[in-house]
Predict the 3D structure of the following.
Amino acid sequence: MKITLSHIKADIGGYVGHSESHPDILAKAEECLAKAKKEGLLIDYHVTKCGDDLQLIMTHQQGEESEKIHKLAWDTFIEGTKVAKKLKLYGAGQDLLSDAFSGNVKGMGPGVAEMEFEERPSEPILIFMADKTSAGAWNMPLYKMFADPFNTIGLVIAPNMHTGFTFEVHDVKEHKKITLNCPEEIYDLLIFIGAPSRYMVKAVYSRETNEIAAVSSTQKLSLIAGRYVGKDDPVCVVRAQGTFPAVGEVLEPFTLPHLVEGWMRGSHHGPFMPVSIPDSTPTRFDGPPRVTAAGFQLAEGKLIGPRDMFADKSFDIARQQANEIANYMRRHGPFEPHRLPLEEMEYTTMPQVAKKLEGRFVDLD
Ligand code: F6R
Ligand code: MG
Ligand code: MG
C-alpha cells in the first residue's frame, strides 16, 4: 500500500510570547483535520506542538506536494490564526507570509517534510520537531544516523545496511542540490554539511533498496521573506528498522546536545536539548533550542501512537548537559560564538550603528 506522510507546520501565534502553543489552537487544528479525515481526504492525522509551532502530521494517498493536502494545511493555519488573533496570542499568523494560497505551501512560510513510500509489513516512523533553531540542525544527527558507525552499529554488522546511504544536500543560498554516496564520499559530504547555515540535508535514501529513509524541511524563512520573520523551527521524518537504522540508532545522536543556530532573536548558538513533548516550552532566554520526537507505527496508513520518545530517562543526562552548556554559552553575553557571526544574525543594529559612526572611523597608520 503506497502511503504519503505529510508533515506541515507553522508558528501561527505563541503563548506566552514565543514559548508555547495555546490549547485552543491545537483544538481548532484537530477540528479541521478530523473533518478532512471524515471526508476521506486523510487516512489519519495527528496534531501536536513543539514550543510555539503547530504541527500537522497527516497520512493520505494523494502523493507529495498535493494541492489538496497543502490547501488543507493552509486553511487549518488560517483558521488557527483567527483563534490566535482573538486571544491576541503573540505573533498571530507570523509564518503565513502570503495572503492567498497558490497551490503549494512551500515558500509561503510553513515548513514541509513529505515522503511517499510503500508501507512495509511493519513501519516504525520517528518524527523530530524543533523549536528556536533552523533546518541545518538536522545535519549532524542525520550524518550520525546514516553514516557514522560509532553511532549506528548496523552500518558495520547488518548486511542490509552495509552498502550505506545516499544524502541529498541542498545549498539554500544558491538553490542547488547534490547527492553524495556514503561511506565513500563522507569527506566530501562533511565539507558541505559541516556548514549548516547554508547546506542542509534534505533527504536520505537506502543504497540497498533506493527507498526513502529520511526527509527534512529545509525552508529558510529569513531567505523566503528577505527579512527576519522567525527561525525555521524545522521538522524531520525518519523511517526505522529493517534496512534503516534501528529506533535506538535513530535516537542516539540526540544524546549530544550539539550547538545549533537560533535561540534568542534567532541570533545565537545554543545547545539542542532533547525533551518530551510537554517540555517543549523554550523559556530561558527564549530557549534553549528544543527537539522532540514522536514515534508511530503505521498500520495501513493509520498513525498508531505517538510515543513520546525523548520522555525516556536515558535522555536525562543530555538535558543536564544542555543546561550546563546553556549556562556556559550565556556567560559570553553579546560575544561570539554565543552571538552568531554578523551575516547570520536575524536581528541587527549594525547598519544603523555603522552609519551613525561613519565619520568617526579614521584610517589606520
Ligand atoms: C522567535 C524567537 C524569539 C524572538 C524574541 C523577540 O522565534 O526566537 O527569541 O526573536 O522573543 O521577539 P519579537 O521581535 O517578536 O519581540
Ligand atoms: Mg514564535
Ligand atoms: Mg517556533
